[in-house]
Amino acid sequence: MRECHYMKSGCSVHELVEVLISAIEAKDNYTKGHSERVAEMTSDICSHLILSKSEVDEIHVAAHLHDLGKIYVEDAVLKKAGKLTEDEWEQIKMHPQVGENILSKVSGFGDIIKMVRHHHERWDGRGYPDGISGENIPLGARIITVADAIDAMLSERPYRPPMTLENCLIELEAGKNKQFDPMIADIAMRILAERV
Ligand SMILES: [Fe+2]
Ligand SMILES: [Fe+2]
Fold it and tell me: Which residue has the higher pLDDT, 64 or 158?
């Protein structure tokens, strides 16, 4: 890769990521602002955990980037209202690894890349791409999973209206030890309960 001398030590990786992802999402009303809201929620959750500032910042940036790989999923598949075919579902399931591949060219992004790869793993090991479980899943990825699910539930989709906050809380409780790390789900539920 050609060396680029236009570098500023004060350059904010966070701001750059934020503007690029919001530009990508702006073309679709249903995803507009999704990564921004997920990033905000991950930081809210992190504020209830004992983490260093740099760990919180990395999780926040990873949350902005978590669905980057979806830029290679066809719009017709992403926006499909009906049931997905097996091939379409396989295409969607590739997005964590596609995001990982895109970001692998960025040096110093190792932990962020792992969080992007693993944001669809499940606490019970039934997620993808690797089917890892429990604390084998990076903490940041477990936090993004919960924040991502909350935003998906509370957002309108082409095929359904947004879920109520009360029902979202019920889903989070039901997903503990299955999709979600129970500790992270509990923290998120406390944060959401304050909004009811
Ligand atoms: Fe942000
Ligand atoms: Fe995703």
Answer: 64
> In the prediction, which pLDDT does 1 show?
55
Ligand (nearest to CA of 149): 2
Task: Identify the domain containing residue 131 by its residue range.
Answer: 14-19+32-193
In this structure, which ligand is nearest to the CA of 62? 1
Reply yes or no on whether 27 is catalytic.
no
Looking at the domain assignment, is residue 140 inside a domain? Answer: yes
Q: How far is CA 71 from CA 5, 28, 65, 96, 99, in A?
A: 28, 12, 11, 11, 9
Residue 156: CATH number of its domain: 1.10.3210.10
Give the distance (Å) from ligand 2 centre to CA of residue 85. Answer: 18
In-domain check, residue 92: yes
Q: What is the pLDDT of residue 193?
A: 92
The number of distinct structural domains making up the chain is 1
Catalytic residue among 27, 70, 80, 114: 70
Instruction: Give the global pTM.
Output: 0.93
What is the rounded CA–CA span in Å between residue 75 and residue 153?
A: 21
Ligand 1 centroid from CA 156, angstroms: 22
Hey, what are 37's tokens? 């809201």
**How confident is the model over 145-163, as pLDDT tens digits?**
999 999 999 998 877 899 9
